[in-house]
Amino acid sequence: MKIKLLLADDHQIVLKGISFFLSMQPDFEIVGEAHNGREAVEMTDKLKPDIVLMDLNMPVMDGIEASRLIAESHPEVKVLVLTSFADSSHVVPALRTGAIGYMLKEVEPDQLVEAIRSAYKGNMQLHPDISAVILSQLSPGGKELRAAPSKEALDLLTPRELEVLEQLTKGLSNKEIAQALVVAEKTVKTHVSSILGKLNLTDRTQAALYAVSAFSPVE
Q1: Residue 113 CB contacts under 8 Å (≥ 6 apart), including other chains
Q2: How far, in Å, CA of 97 to CA of 40, rounded?
Q3: 191: domain range?
Q4: Do 172 and 106 fall into the same domain?
Q5: Phi/psi at 20 (5° precision)
Q6: What angle do helix axes 37-47 and 63-73 make, rounded to 10 degrees?
Q7: Residue 152 is inside which H or E element, if any?
Q8: DSSP-derived secondary structure letter, 172
Q9: Beta strands 51-54 and 28-34: pairing type?
């Protein structure tokens, strides 16, 4: 079964280039190309893609509003942002719509392909250059963290807590993590609380974002 993709970008050359490359992948099917956010929403209604590859700065309706509307009407459809904007004023609102990830257009083609495949499986995708920026902004009420934890902070976690943290990057609930690790849901809740305390984080979203950054290989 192929992954059905809807591409949304107002730059025709960029759109055609991405479409041509992705259509060469044996497990991808390009089901539509939208030139603005409104078209992306309407085409999602009609075509029911698995993933919408969404630009942000588009006419008629921007990608953030389009992502929000798609999440409301089609929660089963995953939105993967692909844009040139790496600042928190774009990244944070986009992720808060429920987007599965946020990639920059400078990403290598092969990395984009793998990000799409991983997003299809439900895994959060973040371009490594913006992980730290997002992490510092996503605390409740807009308050920044006192300090983003370093990769060395992982040493504070037990082996089981590391397993739970990795599961958080997939957006799983405590119940789903408990099923995946074959432990009690109450145990998972305890581990999540311990992880947040040890890493100086305030919520699961921050933990997931930190994990995506921390588990990424150093180039």
Answers
A1: 22, 25, 28
A2: 15
A3: 147-215
A4: no
A5: -60, -45
A6: 20
A7: none
A8: -
A9: unpaired
Q: Which residue has the tokens 């943290």?
A: 165
Q: Is 20 found in the same domain as 120? A: yes
* 101, 124 contact by CB (below 8 A): yes
194/204 Cα distance (integer angstroms): 12
**Domain holding 100: CATH number?**
3.40.50.2300
What the block records as the tokens of 189 is 């809740």
Q: Which two tokens stand for residue 160?
A: 């089981």
Whether residues 192 and 114 share a domain: the answer is no
Instruction: Tell me phi and psi for residue 36, to 5 degrees.
Output: -160, 170
Q: What are the angstrom distances between the C-alpha of 34 and each of 2, 40, 69?
A: 20, 5, 15
| Predicted confidence (pLDDT) per residue in 171-208, tens digit | 677 888 999 999 999 999 999 999 999 988 877 777 87
Beta-strand runs (E) in 41-147:
51-54, 78-83, 101-104, 125-126
Cα 201 vs. chain centroid, distance in angstroms?
A: 19
CA distance 125 to 99: 9
Phi/psi region, residue 171 (left: phi>0; alpha: psi -120 to 50; beta: rest), is: left
What pLDDT is attached to residue 219? 42
CB 60 within 8 A of CB 42: no
pLDDT digit string, tens, across residues 33-79? 999 999 999 999 999 999 999 999 999 999 999 999 999 999 999 99
**Across residues 128-143, what is the average pLDDT?**
58
